[in-house]
Amino acid sequence: MADVIGVTGTPGTGKKSVAPLVARKLGLECIGINEFTRSAGLDDALSAGGDVDTRELRRRFEQEVSGKVLAYGHLLPYVLRRGSVRRVAVLRCEPGVLKDRLRARRYPPQKVQQNVEAELIGLVSSDAYDRFGGMTFEVDTTLTSPEEAASVVLAYLGGSGPDSPRIDWTTHYDSGAKLRLLLSGT
């Protein structure tokens, strides 16, 4: 069984940039859940924008991965078991900034809206807290470089991070007009 440090978050929050930096500093193998899905031949749904069979993905991960690793991806809370995870960093990004990031990556408008809505309500974060409980902490990547975010993650992992209050973006969008502006034109 693997001993995992996890990095998760909505697409566009910085996982692919931050996780390898953290893994390198800790001397751990870095495994991207999406890449693992592809290498396991379970990527048909992933490529089509559909749902991945997370039970089969969990089975394959547990079968093929062992030792201390850092795993990252938005599917992490749905794939890994609580007992295999030591700590989980949830990367968060202010939804308006996330919208710009996803547009710059040329995500289809429907995917932009789905991911912005997911980040607004804290979907991945909530699922990570539900799955991993007190082993979970959040890091705001809105205005940080990947190196700065990795330093914050490392501080939490080392026990010297500040208190990690839950991030609630809904307080930034406290009117219908602000929500419509955020969710329009995606």
- At CATH level 2, the architecture is 3-Layer(aba) Sandwich
Work out the helicity level.
40-55%
| Overall body shape | globular
Rounded Rg: 16 Å
Number of domains: 1
Task: Walk me through what this model shows.
The chain has one domain (2-92, 124-166): P-loop containing nucleotide triphosphate hydrolases (Rossmann fold), CATH 3.40.50.300. The chain has helices spanning 15-26, 33-39, 44-47, 54-64, 76-79, 95-104, 109-121, 123-132, 146-157, 176-183; strands spanning 2-9, 29-32, 67-72, 85-92, 136-140. Helix 1 (15-26) crosses helix 9 (146-157). The termini are far apart. It has a 5-stranded parallel sheet with strand order 2-3-1-4-5, with helices on both faces. The model has no long low-confidence stretch (mean pLDDT 91). By secondary structure, it is an alpha/beta fold. The relative contact order is 0.19. It contains 10 helices and 5 strands; from the N terminus they run βαβαααβαβαααβαα.
